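ugh ok so i messed up the first submission bc i forgot one of the chains. this is the corrected input, ALL of the components this time, i swear. 235 residues overall. if the numbers dont match what u have on ur side tell me asap before i send this to the collaborators (the ones from the other lab, u know who)
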Amino acid sequence: MKVNDVILQTYTKAVAFIILIFSLYLFLAGHNQPGGGFIGGLMTSAALVLLYIAFDMKTVDNMIPIDFRKMVALGLTIAVFTGFGSFIFQVPFLTHSFGYFRLPLLGETELATAVMFDLGVYLTVVGGTMTIMLAIAEDDD
Amino acid sequence: MVNTILILSYCFLILSILGTLYRLVKGPSAPDRVQALDALGINIISGIAIFSVSSRNTGFFEVILLIGILSFIGTIAFSRYIERGVVIERGQPK
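and heres the new structure output, hopefully the right one now
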């Protein structure tokens, strides 16, 4: 039986982008305001789960060809190499620094190396959550 | 003046949450309980909004949007489960 859920799918096409932008905002705002890599990753995976609920698994796998297990490995690698990067400057492991740079369009901006570590946390959380969700949904009944 | 309004809105919010909790416990069918959960999420959102006004703090505005999104996805997942029996479908092989 073919069930037509056009309202949910049309709604999802708009709302998923709003949730993704909100997760990006949470990820970037984490230094000075509530937010950070963990909750940003959870919101991104919430948007992906909404896509998976509205469409079926094959469609979304074709839309987003990402292996989420590799995403966990990539996130952990980024986090560890952020720690190793402090050895170049003869400082202890995971020492972070920041500086003020003048960027086009943004003006004076504070750029910190903690964002790289946060990016690792973000990728790990997205990969772990989506791996759990898809592994539960994938089993045969 | 503002304080009185805030306390009054807390009281009405508690009454509304008690109403939805009654439907959540007593509700004869599963869709009743799902709708009660959705309404409870919206009540919690307004509670956080009133709390952030009364504590003069803008740090909870992200929480409002976040609970809105999570409550929406939870309701969608529950209704999909009631309708089809699965939350995430496998899809037809091409």
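quick check: The CA atoms of residues 67 and 127 of chain A lie 8 Å apart. that seems consistent at least. Residues 114-138 of chain A form the longest helix (25 residues).
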